[in-house]
UniProtKB/TrEMBL annotation:
Function summary: Reversible hydration of carbon dioxide.
Reactions it catalyzes: hydrogencarbonate + H(+) = CO2 + H2O
Protein name (database record): Carbonic anhydrase
Annotated SMART domains: Pro_CA (SM00947)
Annotated organism of origin: Lithohypha guttulata
Domain of life assignment: Eukaryota
EC number(s) from the headed UniProt entry: 4.2.1.1
Cited InterPro entries: Carbonic_anhydrase, Carbonic_anhydrase_sf
Keywords: Lyase, Metal-binding, Zinc
High-level lineage: Eukaryota, Fungi, Dikarya, Ascomycota, Pezizomycotina
Coiled coil (residue ranges): none
Cofactor: Zn(2+)
Keyword Zinc set for record: yes
Stated family: Belongs to the beta-class carbonic anhydrase family.
Length: 178
């Protein structure tokens, strides 16, 4: 069985990739030519089995993918707001996936570990959220779509275009969650 690559292994892979690299237009070049940036933001989990670029067949400029533990919309908000300011997003997709690791831990357990590691930072640790998922994935998606739709920091037009999905790791399907 092979071992996961180290950072050094990945850097070495870059040297074999670089000769085949095809540059893409900078944002400035793209905007100057009248083209827009991506209009869809996808909030997904960083789990290496959940790769929106693959299961949505994305190419460059199709979408912006923001990855947070458990597809946590609250954690993604600063990035969403910045990207929207830059490119004028039109839609947000919240995508959770089956067998998510965030179903297997609790934020309180992580806080306990951190308090033991850094007791002087307890005041900061208590404010931290780590994306735990309690309940069903459907409930989680519904909750995070609602968080985005209620967030007054997002433009009203964008809040109206937030949808939620569950990606099934076994069959590759994407199920819309109402």
């Amino acid at each position: 069985m092979s071992h996961p690559p180290t950072a050094s292994d990945l850097i070495a892979r870059n040297t074999t990739y670089q000769p085949t690299h095809h540059p893409t237009a900078t944002l400035s070049e793209r905007f100057a030519s009248g083209l827009k940036g991506p209009t869809v933001a996808i909030i997904a989990c960083p789990d290496p089995r959940c790769i929106p670029e693959t299961f949505l067949n994305l190419t460059t400029w199709d979408a912006v993918v923001i990855r947070t533990a458990g597809s946590n919309v609250t954690a993604a908000l600063p990035t969403l707001i910045a990207i929207d300011k830059l490119v004028g997003l039109q839609e947000i997709m919240v995508v959770n996936h089956t067998d998510c690791g965030a179903l297997m831990y609790r934020d309180d357990e992580i806080r306990e570990t951190l308090r033991a590691r850094a007791p002087r930072m307890a005041h900061v640790i208590e404010q931290m959220a780590f994306g735990e998922i309690t309940g069903t994935l459907e409930d989680r998606v519904t909750e995070h779509v609602a968080i985005a739709r209620r967030c007054e920091l997002l433009r009203q037009e964008l809040r109206e275009k937030v949808t939620g999905y569950i990606y099934d790791l076994k069959d590759g399907s994407l199920k819309h969650v109402n």
